[in-house]
Amino acid sequence: MTIPIFHVDAFAEEPFAGNPAAVCLLDEERPESWMQAVASEMNLSATAFVRQMDRGYELRWFTPAAEIALCGHGTLAAAHVMWAEKVVERAEPLRFQTKSGILTCEHTGDIIELDFPATPPTESVPPSGLFDALHVGPGFAGKSRFDYFVMVESEEIVRSLEPDFHALRGIPGIRGVIVTSTSQDPRFDFVSRFFAPGAGIDEDPVTGSAHCTLAPFWSERLGKSAMTAFQASKRGGTVQVRVEGERVVLGGRATGILRGELSDYPARSSRSDS
Prior knowledge:
Layout: E1 2-10, E2 19-26, H1 32-42, E3 47-52, E4 57-62, E5 67-68, H2 72-84, E6 94-98, E7 101-108, E8 111-117, E9 122-123, H3 130-134, E10 140-143, E11 147-151, H4 155-160, H5 165-169, E12 176-182, E13 190-196, E14 201-204, H6 208-222, E15 226-231, E16 237-244, E17 247-252, E18 254-263
Parallel strand pairs: 2-3, 4-6, 11-12, 13-15
Antiparallel strand pairs: 1-2, 1-18, 3-4, 4-5, 6-7, 7-8, 8-17, 9-10, 10-11, 12-13, 13-14, 15-16, 16-17
């Protein structure tokens, strides 16, 4: 028995850009250990698992190291696959049941829009060693539901960051760190980068869930509800954001790169029998 698996570049204007994710379409419930083993084998920043439920679809996301509670690019990739494979018709909105509640997705022209919960940062004292690990001077620091948040003075600083990932990994209670500034490029309102060594990802190319924090933060400061963001990783990616009360709508494109079949090997908790 085999399971369909797809490789999709999410938040990408063209192939081999944005953030790659794997998507598995499941026909039945699978053990968490098996899903984690698949995600570790795929070794991408996220592997999404979709399973049909009585009402809608269950969606779970795993990094190579752990399950995560919210993932934008994995959701975008999953929605793209569902429509491309005609699991649902393109005109039909998708409802995913996730660890962060119901997430809906729909097509708007050639953009896929994701309705996500807003996770604005609260200004707070940064944990010891955070600024040193990022190699930046003291500035605004906050914390969202999932991540630490740092605003720096310029896009140049954001783009030139070379964090100490070992030091970041040692900071307790951290999924990741968002670093951001306004953009010098008139096409974009703000730029960011996202580092998550504690989740097994030194730098994530484009992070949808981080924009649930970035969007309300910059909306308040720039006086805009709709903005265009750029995540300035090596691959890079554009994210359209729109703040709607306690929700954030994320918009982006996705490109299918590879379609295959995953052999249904059972996950093993140890390799002592090898």
